[in-house]
Design brief:
This protein is of the alpha+beta class and about 150 residues long. The chain has a domain of about 100 residues: Alpha-Beta Plaits, CATH 3.30.70. It has an eight-stranded antiparallel β-sheet. Strand 2 and strand 3 form a beta hairpin.
C-alpha cells in the first residue's frame, strides 16, 4: 500500500548568534514573520530561537515544490539572511508532513535522531537518506517558537 499524501520539500538551517543578538532576532521576526504568510509555494515556516549559552536562530520550512524552494533561495529574502548572518548550511528532507502544529511561545526540543514513536509536533523523515528531524514540545526544550507562518 502506498501513501497517497503529497510529498513536500522540508528545509532547515541554523544561524549561530553572538551573545546579546537574541533581542534583535525577536524584533526581526515580529517584523518579517507575517510576510511569509503570502510567500508563493510555502506550506509553513517555523522561526525558533535558542537564547542560552549557545544562542541560535533556527528556521524550518515546508515547500510545495523544489521550484518554490529554489525561488526563495535565489530571491531577495534569502539574500538578506546571507548578508546579515552569512551563508548557512541548508539541510533538505522529503516529507509528507504538511503542517507545523506549534504555537508561538512553545518550547521545543529538536532531535536529529528521528526516534520512532516520539509524539512529535513536527517530524521530517527523508526516505532517500534515512535522515530525520523531530520537534517535540518540552518545558525543558532549548528552543522557543517565535512565529509560525501558515500561508493559505
Amino acid at each position: 500500500m502506498t501513501d497517497a499524501r503529497p510529498v513536500h520539500i522540508a528545509m532547515r538551517y541554523v544561524i549561530p548568534l553572538q551573545q546579546g543578538q537574541a533581542g534583535a532576532v525577536r524584533v526581526r521576526v515580529a517584523q518579517i514573520g507575517p510576510s511569509f504568510d503570502a510567500l508563493p509555494g510555502l506550506v509553513a515556516k517555523l522561526f525558533l530561537l535558542a537564547d542560552d549559552e549557545t544562542p541560535t536562530y533556527s528556521l524550518f520550512y515546508i515547500w510545495r515544490s523544489p521550484a518554490a524552494m529554489r525561488d526563495f533561495l535565489a530571491g531577495e529574502g534569502f539574500a538578506a539572511v546571507v548578508a546579515k548572518y552569512g551563508r548557512p548550511t541548508i539541510e533538505t528532507f522529503l516529507t509528507t508532513d504538511d503542517r507545523i502544529d506549534l504555537p508561538a511561545g512553545e518550547r521545543v526540543a529538536v532531535s536529529g535522531s528521528g526516534q520512532a514513536g516520539l509524539a512529535a509536533a513536527v517530524r521530517f523523515d527523508d526516505p532517500a537518506t534515512g535522515k530525520a528531524v523531530t520537534l517535540v514540545p518540552s518545558e525543558e526544550g532549548r528552543h522557543e517558537v517565535l512565529f509560525v507562518a501558515r500561508p493559505r
